[in-house]
Amino acid sequence: MDLEKIPHLLKGKGKKILIYHTDLDGVCSAILMLKFFRGFELIPREGPIVDDRFLKELVGKKPDLMVVLDIPIDQEWKKIELLQRKLPRMRILLIDHHVPNKNLGSERNIHINPRFEKNVYIPSSCQVYRLLEGLGHDVKPYVWIAAIGIIGDYGFEDCKDVIDECRKAYPDSMGKDPMKSNLKEVSDYILSALILHGTRGVEKSLKILLGMDNFGAVTQNGYFASCEKKVTGEIRRILSDFEKRKREYHNLDLVIYRIESRLNITSTISTLVAERNPDKIIIITKYSGQYVKISARCQAGDIDLNSLLKETVAGIGSGGGHEKAAGAMVKRTDVDEFNKRLIEKITELKTKL
Fold first, then answer.
1. What's the pTM?
2. Is there a single domain that holds both residue 200 and residue 255?
3. In which domain, by residue range, is 265 found?
């Protein structure tokens, strides 16, 4: 990768937009980038879908540079190619870690994804941290931000260097197990704001964190503390309801549950349920307007969820992610077709194991 091109892009004149994922990894990636490069219009997004409305919005903004963090927009490569035809001067810097669908790198674009080289799981916050370090910036005081992004995405195995660096720089941040640490508590407080207030919470959290110099201030912040209290109560309610209303397919090691909550909590619940059921395929759904959001987990790793969801929603929605954790979205009118395909596909895969 030619690092010399990146500062030229980020410091260049013209209109710049930064699109980032609305989870911990995406938010932390954006914060790290903004610590050293300002002047961006910020656009938080829940996923990679580029519908006609969003495409029109991007065309109308006429950016000279579009930076995308922790969002696999290569899943929508046809829409991105259309966007660049409409905006022939626009360049793209994409930093991502999901299973790639297409390499968008070109003379105009830089597409960074460690999976192009080997099968690793390196959250985008870790990548941005190392990238900034490689560009000569003093990013070490913000290693705790990168570590929060890594914790949020469970990306410990391939990010041990950054975790160890954080542990050394801030001995009170974490012990041997990052998931039972002070920094994990901090990440939960921030995540609560993202869950409780959606995009507004994402934007407010980013603004607050940009002004913080240490992680200890997070749990003392009234906004984060209030969000954590409310979300913790809702999680307890949903987990109790899960045990009552889940649909189990014992022959497939499959569990399906539909969340009924006003909070954007699908991913969090699927992760928590998967931790309690490590041998099961967990499918959590939530109706949101005309769409159904789907979050899938399988800690056993015997089913590739990225491929499963991509194949299941082909022609009716968008989906993908990682081998053990993936997401998708379909219209309400297609949810029965999704369920039918899901059962058929898992049945087929299980017979091959």
1. 0.89
2. no
3. 246-352
Round to whole Å and give the CA distance between 97 and 86. Answer: 27
- C-beta separation of 186 from 151 below 8 A: no
List pLDDT tens digits, range 150-165: 999 999 999 999 999 9
Q: Are residues 142 and 272 in the same domain?
A: no
- Whether the pLDDT of residue 2 is over 90: the answer is no
**Cβ atoms of residues 166 and 143 within 8 Å:** yes
Domain of residue 79, CATH code: 3.90.1640.30
Q: How far is it, in rounded angstroms, from Cα 98 to Cα 156? A: 15
**CB count in 10 Å sphere of residue 209:** 23
Please tell me whether residues 129 and 274 are part of one structural domain: no
Q: Would you say residue 80 has pLDDT above 60?
A: yes
pLDDT in tens, 96-137: 999 999 999 999 999 999 999 999 999 999 999 999 999 999
- Helices 124-134/160-169 angle, 10° precision: 70
For residues 92 and 141, membership in a common domain is answered with yes
Q: If phi over 0 gives left and psi between -120 and 50 gives alpha, with beta otherwise, what is residue 340?
A: alpha
Q: Which residue has the tokens 């985008």?
A: 124
**Domain presence at residue 227:** no
Given a contact cutoff of 8 angstroms between Cβ atoms, the answer to whether 96 and 70 are in contact is yes
pLDDT at site 352: 81
293 part of a folded domain: yes
Q: Which residues contact 231 (CB under 8 A, 6 or more apart)?
A: 191, 192, 195, 196, 263, 265
CA distances from 205 to 45, 50, 125, 129 (A): 15, 25, 16, 19
State the sign of the Cα–Cα–Cα–Cα dihedral 197, 203, 207, 210.
positive
